Inverse folding.
């Protein structure tokens, strides 16, 4: 099936949409990201102007996925993608966070959205690099002790690279927990 109308509408969308600024913080990994609400608010007027609509739903096929579908309103032409929902703990908050994460990344990928830091004028690129070490806090360490193996591996990898660091005892305990 040819999607000429959809492709034309998406090209129009791409020409009009501006980069999305990161608006939320992840204190556990000391990073910033663009929240799902922020992304949706940013793109909605341009989607409407270009005759596009987005539908996102959870689907289950041996595993939970988020399906994101972009449709050209008049022709009904569409394109979709699926993104796995990876849950670290079996509770409602973990599922909600994982679904939100999958929706953000699926939406960003399907629409080829640009997400950028708040400082977009290049000032941070010319600031001198600070040699300050960022340590894994005791609170982060305790949360990591409760996490799954994938999360523990991610923390060990992150805090093995400069400027990140962790106490030797924390590294040993996490490594032992991972190898148990």
């Amino acid at each position: 099936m040819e999607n000429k109308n959809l492709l034309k509408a998406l090209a129009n969308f791409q020409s009009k949409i501006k980069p999305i600024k990161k608006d939320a913080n992840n204190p556990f990994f000391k990073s910033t990201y663009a929240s799902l609400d922020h992304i949706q608010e940013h793109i909605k007027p341009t989607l409407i102007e270009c005759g596009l609509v987005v539908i996102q739903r959870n689907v289950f096929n041996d595993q939970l996925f988020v399906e994101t579908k972009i449709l050209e309103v008049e022709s009904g032409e569409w394109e979709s993608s699926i993104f796995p929902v990876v849950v670290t703990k079996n509770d409602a908050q973990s599922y909600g966070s994982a679904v939100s994460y999958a929706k953000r990344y699926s939406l960003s990928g399907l629409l080829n959205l640009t997400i950028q830091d708040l400082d977009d004028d290049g000032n941070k690129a010319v600031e001198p690099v600070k040699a300050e070490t960022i340590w894994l806090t005791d609170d982060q360490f305790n949360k990591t002790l409760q996490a799954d193996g994938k999360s523990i591996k991610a923390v060990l990898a992150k805090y093995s690279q400069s400027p990140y660091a962790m106490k030797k005892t924390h590294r040993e305990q996490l490594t032992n927990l991972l190898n148990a």
Notes: Strands lie at 20-21, 24-26, 31-33, 52-60, 64-72, 78-84, 115-116, 134-135, 164-165.
